[in-house]
Amino acid sequence: MTNRKATKSKTIALKPFWEGDADDPFSFARFNWEEGLGERESIAPMFLAKRRPGAKEGNVDTAERVELLLPADAPEIYADPDFLVSDYEKSLSAKDRLAFAQVTMRFAEAMNLHGPYEVARQWLREQYVKGRGLPLLLVLHAPFRMGSDNAPHVHAMVLPRKLTRFGWSKVDRRLGSDGDRATAREAWLATAAEQL
Question: 0.85 cut: is pTM over it?
Answer without folding.
Answer: yes
